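Lecture 7 notes: from sequence to structure.
We start with the chain below.
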Amino acid sequence: MRTFLYTKKHYKIQLLFVLWIVQSPIGSYGQEKQYDMVVAKDGSGDYQYVQDAIDACRAFTPKRLNIFIKNGVYKEKVLIPGWITDISLIGESIDSTIITYDDHAGKGKMGTFDSYTVKIEGNDIVVENIAIANTAGEVGQAVALHIEGDRCVFRNCKFLGNQDTMFASGENSRQYYQDCYIEGTTDFIFGPATAVFEDCVIHSKKNSYITAASTPEWVAYGYVFIDCKFTAAEGVGEVYLGRPWRDYAQTVFIRADLGTHILPEGWHNWSRPEAEETTFYAEYGSTGAGADPTARVPWAHQLEEKELQNYALDKIFNGWDPIRAHVSGKE
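Predicted structure tokens for the same chain:
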């Protein structure tokens, strides 16, 4: 019988191997070990409801907390209050990790701003691989995402609804959406935030308006769409890029791929001619059947290439870097 002599070197190798097995992302156990909490409808995690995991977070946590949400349909109204900061909600799969509710304006005494499925008031929140839906149907205003927090990032997410799908709120809020899908009917991206949408798909479900920005007069940037694709449901052919919810609305499209559903005039003044003097609607390098700069309303702008430097992320967000937000949440 052979005797194997353990040296310090052998012991170190074995220890490293054990640590690799425990921490490896291979398999569900290893994957979940990367997170501070796990939410699972089937009871296999720390919590069965997303809201319970959020309620368990320490107020103004000194370090980022990562919450893994397993596949499932979570029918609940979720609120991340202002004292919950620096947390990440990471879904298992964008198509199968779904948070949904069905409130809408006019339901009892409910107004638009209370109709949300998910509301985020806290700062430095990151959301990945999750679908957020309002399934109230075409009953008027019904918000899927209501966000007021600053320095918030959404990656590979879906936002599903009809009228007022996404309320990008907060007069000093900075929001970044990357590789997301957003659908709706009327004014389905609306509010006063500074928000950048990059490499997103924006889908119109009926003839109406995509954006309704309400940028405050003193805020430098409103909505900026960079390299986004604009699509529509079958039979939809009369969609405006936006109309001003408030007089100083700002919306800019950079290298947008515009489908046939986009009207030649592009923009609407919401039947308020005076708003044409104060809004800022602009495009650069739009392509596709819906891109015709010569047919746009005369009060819209076509940016020159030299102006693109004003739409670098660090300028739009005043120094905050959303690309690194998954590391620390703050810059």
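Points to note: The CA atoms of residues 84 and 201 lie 30 Å apart. Residues 170-318 form a domain with the Pectate Lyase C-like fold (CATH 2.160.20.10).
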